[in-house]
Amino acid sequence: MALFKLSINNRAYSADVEGDTPLLWVLRDNLGLVGTKYGCGIAQCGACTVHLDGKAVRSCVLPVSAVGKAKVTTIEGLSEKGDHPVQKAWDEVDVAQCGYCQAGQIMTAAAFLKEKPKPTEEEIVGAMSGNLCRCGTYHRIREAVKVAASKTN
Amino acid sequence: MSTLNQTSRRDFMKIAAAAGGGLFLGFNWSDTTAAPVVVDAKQIAAGSVKFNSYLSIGSDNIITIVSPNPEIGQGIKTAFPMVVAEELDADWKLVKTVQGKLDNAAFERQVTGGSGAVPHSWERLRKAGATARYLLVNAAAAKWGVPAAEITTADSKLFHKASGKSAGYGEFAEAAGKLTAPTDIKLKDEKSFKLIGQSVRNVDNKNIATGKPLFGLDFYREGMLFAIIQRPKAFGFKLKSVDSAAAKAMPGIVDVVTFENSVAVVGKSTWQCKKAREVLKIEYEKAADLESSEDHNRIFSNLMDNGEATVRRKNGDVEAAFKGAAKVIKAEYQCPFLPHSPLEPMNFFAHVREDGVELVGPTQTPDRAREAAAKITGFPTEKITVEITRQGGGFGRRLSADFAIEAVHVSKLVKAPVKVIWTREDDMTGGTYRPAVRYRFEAALDKNGEMIGYKLRGVGINSGNPTREDNFPSGSVDNLLIDSVEHKSAITTGPWRAPITNFLAYAEQSFIDEVAEAAGKDPVQFRLALLEKAKKSPAGEVKYDVDRMIAVIKLAAEKSNWGKKKGVHQGFSVYFSHRSYVAQVGEVVVEKGKPTLKNIIAAVDCGIVINKSGSLQQVRGGVVDGVGHAMFGNMTFKAGTPDQSNFNGFRLIRMNEIPEVDVHFVDNGISPTGLGEPALPPAGGAVANAFYKATKQRLRNQPFINEEAFKGIS
User: Fold this and answer.
1) Chosen from A21, A75, A100 to mutate, greatest number of chain B CBs within 10 A
2) Is the CB of residue A43 less than 8 Å away from at least one CB of chain B?
3) Closest CB to B271 among A21, A103, A136
4) 3-state helix/strand/coil string of A75-101
5) Which residue in chain A has the smallest CA separation from B224?
6) What's the mean pLDDT in B156-183?
7) Which of A41, B32, B143, B503 is the most buried (most CB within 10 A)?
8) Mean pLDDT of all residues belonging to chain B
9) What does the buried/exposed string (b/e) look like for B378-395 if buried means 16 or more CB atoms within 10 Å of the residue's CB?
């Protein structure tokens, strides 16, 4: 066990855990930030996607010891009032069915649009195909990313 | 009867109180006889009245409605209140929804399964809304001194045209709460629906998009321990011995306990438990045959020819028909086991206390959990509460209670509140799969290409009856025999979204395509001719609505411009399942020698569409699910152990692999018939038949990706 100091959603946190504990489980079990979801544990589904210094990463395979001073953003901290353009687009397009994968989808989309504010459809599909949605809301995810892109420009 | 539990009543009262209590109506969406009743807030809070749903109208015009069924992504939490709000003429913007966490003593329809939630409750929800409206109108009539019949309502407002009087619902909520509800209430003419049929966004969108703790896995309790369980690694194993010394010495581990054939590592975090489980030393012994996929193929072949079959349906003289046939067509279709793969793995919280048991988690069948907990702990069922959380997908998996039962065992053994968490690997290798099935179809054609004989034998592994003997084409063929054989295996199976029909529909619709081709007929015309026959001179009982089936076939053909598109290979499929009718046309285009599924056009008759947005997504999602599993889904076994254990080995469809899905609803005014399942079954047939047109190769086994036609294509 060791004490890890983390910067998450612009707040300082500390967690006394083993260094190999994935960030995902520190967020969920130790810090009460349960918006980041567990889906597969092997970076195959994207449900656990968070931002590390603005880049989308899979928190299920990121040991807490590797986070260092990087700034972590989770779905809870993506916007103060839940009004990030991607979050708003998700509501406007009425994307969610069960909703479990959507936090990860939104985090992937938000990081992607920051890098590529005016993506083509092909680029959207390429960026989002790493995230699984078992309910099959892919058409609407694709649409919502387009809507978010159109609103941020 | 099922009633609302304390937490839900508390949640409901919180919102209702904030809205300034006025009218409270208790009603039962799962009871056919009882009419809605006016109650007071104290009675609800104290639990002295027993209803499974309530609605309140506050002095500030806020309408609060409890939505009953567990939400697993089928949109029920939005659709149910919409039905109430429609009859109430409520302004949807003023409606708040509370998820009812049911606590029923006797099982009724609180299961989310079989696409039955909406049709089951349709009329009762309407009555609740209509009753509340009636009370408001009568309260206003009394105050204004005008006849109730002259008062109209819209957007949560009351109007009296002659006197020019108007008021918001909130103004009369309290007065309405002092009236007695009528026992017989008149419902709206369905043609005058305003809210029903509109697109209404999911009421939980904001909570979902901001990461609020909604799901079972998100439930944490102060002092709660975590448990990760090692179950037998092969189906057919039983536990022989456990050496848990090393695991117990790992950091954060509180205890290692054993029950039945399971070993639970209990500790202070998920990760610590997971790591400690890896150092358990467990020996198993064989308790049943350890089957491999090759064994299953052998079993299928043997039972297909030699099995003792149970006859499911018989019409006419099949043997004579085949003897006199001008042409006989025969084909076999096979599907593998499938895990459900909901993205939220199984999990459950249990606290076995000295005075009772508390259960919290994502289950579609709380009563099974309760009854099992009663058996394990010895408490009577009334001492056991079950709280249902939102569920990260179900697909049938959460109809089983095994994970809740485990939580009860572990909590009882360690005497602490415990959350059992399944890893993805546990979830995928843990059983209750869609059963593996092989079908043999045979058709006899006369010299005119009429189908005069039809045979279907289904052989399933722990499948129960793998046929749906009264579905199409039964009723349309004079000589018909449908039978089945079941092999009992240690590999556990359970309902999987659209049970049995999730595979049967594809196999049957692909075979019908083969028969149509052999008869030299257009696949759509061939189906329509069979249905005309079922209508005019039915062979035995016809248990589906022929006209509704014909209507979706015609609509799909029309919307897809059937048979008239250049360079597009179309495949047709239609199926009646779970009370709805869905026809689909798959469209495959060959690009640079590679056939690609581009579109699915779906025509859907699920009766009245309640929420257009939700319904549209149910169909699209169902098609994506059907296409994805038909294309890629494969679970195989070696000596009782699944070969696939996570999404790296088990392939789920991704965004870059989906076809466009074009959805058309039939508008026929019939009461709604549910939509969680019916869009899935026809998808595989539409895809297989379209690929056949493009490649001239039949896809007779799932997953399609392993078929000859796809060799060299990824």
Assistant:
1) A100
2) no
3) A21
4) HHHCCCCCCCHHHHHHHHCCCCCCCCC
5) A29
6) 95
7) B503
8) 93
9) ebebebbbbbbbbbbbbb
What's the whole-number mean pLDDT along residues B527-552? 97
- Cβ-Cβ contacts under 8 Å, A16 against chain B: none
Determine which of B201, B208, B268 to mutate to test the interface with A (most A C-beta atoms within 10 Å). B208
Residue-range domain boundaries for chain B: 6-209, 216-287+346-421, 307-337+433-710
Choosing among B210, B224, B277, B656, which should be mutated to test the A contact, i.e. which has the most A CBs within 10 A?
A: B210
- Return d(Cα B606, Cα B585) in angstroms, integer: 18
Cβ distance B251 to A18 less than 8 Å, yes or no, reads yes
pLDDT, tens digit (0-9, with 9 covering 90-100), for B639-676:
999 999 999 999 999 999 999 999 999 999 998 988 88
Class (C level, CATH) for B216-287+346-421: alpha beta
According to the CATH classification, is domain B307-337+433-710 in 1.20.1440.20? Answer: no
Residues A89-139: tens digit of each pLDDT: 999 999 999 999 999 999 999 999 999 999 999 999 999 999 999 999 999
**Tens of pLDDT along B44-73?**
888 888 788 889 999 999 999 887 667 777
Q: What is the mean pLDDT of residues B188-197?
A: 94
Q: Where are the beta strands (DSSP E) in B325-450?
A: 327-335, 347-352, 357-361, 384-388, 418-421, 437-445
Return the closest-CA partner of residue B208 out of A132, A129, A5, A47.
Answer: A47
Instruction: Give how far A69 is from chain B: nearest CA, Å.
Output: 22
**B344 contacts in A (CB within 8 Å)?**
37, 39, 98, 100
Tell if the CB–CB gap between B613 and A94 is shorter than 8 Å: yes
Whole-model pTM: value is 0.95
Q: How far apart are CA B423 and CA A41, in angstroms?
A: 8
Average pLDDT over residues B581-596: 95
Q: Where are the beta strands (DSSP E) in B169-288?
A: 225-230, 237-243, 253-259, 262-267, 281-286
A75 in reach of chain B (CB within 8 A): yes
Beta bridge partners of B95: B63
CB contact under 8 A, B205 and A128: no
ipTM, two decimals = 0.98
Residue (of B98, B73, B83) closest to B4 by Cα position: B98
Min CA distance, B139 vs chain A (Å)?
Answer: 38
Q: Which residues on chain A are in Cβ contact (under 8 Å) with B204?
A: 96, 99
Q: How far is A91 from chain B (nearest CA, A)?
A: 6
> Is residue B713 pLDDT above 80, yes or no?
no
- Domains of chain A (ranges plus CATH)? 2-77 (3.10.20.30), 85-152 (1.10.150.120)
Q: Do the domains B216-287+346-421 and B6-209 match in fold?
A: yes
pLDDT in tens, A20-68: 999 999 999 999 999 999 999 999 999 999 999 999 999 999 999 999 9
Does B273 touch chain A if contact means CB atoms closer than 8 Å? Answer: no
Instruction: Give residue A24's identity as a one-letter amino acid code.
Output: L
CATH 3.20.20.450 fits domain B6-209: no
